[in-house]
Predict the structure.
Amino acid sequence: MTNNPASEKKFLVDEIAQDDFVVALKKGFWRSVLNWFNQDRNKLLPFDEVRMRLPLLSEHYIGLREIPLKNIVGSVGRYQDFDRAFLPRQTYTKGRWISIDKAHLQDIVLPPIEVYKLGDLYFVKDGNHRVSVARERGQAFVDANVIEMDMPMKLDPDIRIDELIEKREQIEFFQKTHLLQHIPDAEIELTVPGGYLKLVEHIETHRWFMGERRKSEVTWEDAVVDWYHEVYDPLVKVIQSNQTLKDFPGRTEADLYLWIIEHLWYLREEYQEDIDLENAAADFVKKFSNRSLAWILRLMGKTAAQFNNTMKEPEDKSDE
């Protein structure tokens, strides 16, 4: 009986593809375990929800492009079938996944995927399984027909859904203030919910004081630029020169601006003195930095230990 090379090759390809899927599924499982406390960053972003939360302008087809697979972070309809690394999360994707993998093993050229482009990020419209297999096989790029959606800001590849709310507020802040039109290199990023609305209030207050000083009406544009140069940027430079951010990990210069400005107001009200930005920043760090909180917790721990020892002494002495 003669061997059939074509049949043996087909059997081998089927077996390899089956094994590839099992490996990818296991990797997806262990990745989800490792990301147990950070689940949101391991999930694909649902395109419809992203589109709903961001003020997108217009869309247009930009043609066939070679795009980086690492920048594909979401999907139109399959965001629950794969994780952020496009590893399979469900077994019912097995048949389609294996068929795509077999095509790769046999050097069959597959059609380009279809994606939406938001900033530097991509969302799969068609071709989720092709992306999953390509990433598992170590590809860095994939051919895609791209529909670009215009938006005024960039998105981080690790962004979560709840962070989109902050991003929307940031976009609306820049649209309202037109700050980037006057100062293109201005960078203001907050992690404090509702912080951008407070910045707008600061600008409106600054505008009123400018009008009082000038004895004339001040335009919104003039107030925005003057606030940035005379209030925001000077405090940010104090924060940078004192390396204040290292005492507040996970926060931004804009966060500290908001907190220190409010702290400055409280200090001036309490002491009835014209306290400067440097002293307000130093006092804020002294009272609220992680180092200060750690010192307070250590002190509380020592006090509690001493108290416990004191309470035990009578019992110990009576036993003796």
The first strand starts at residue 45 and ends at 46.
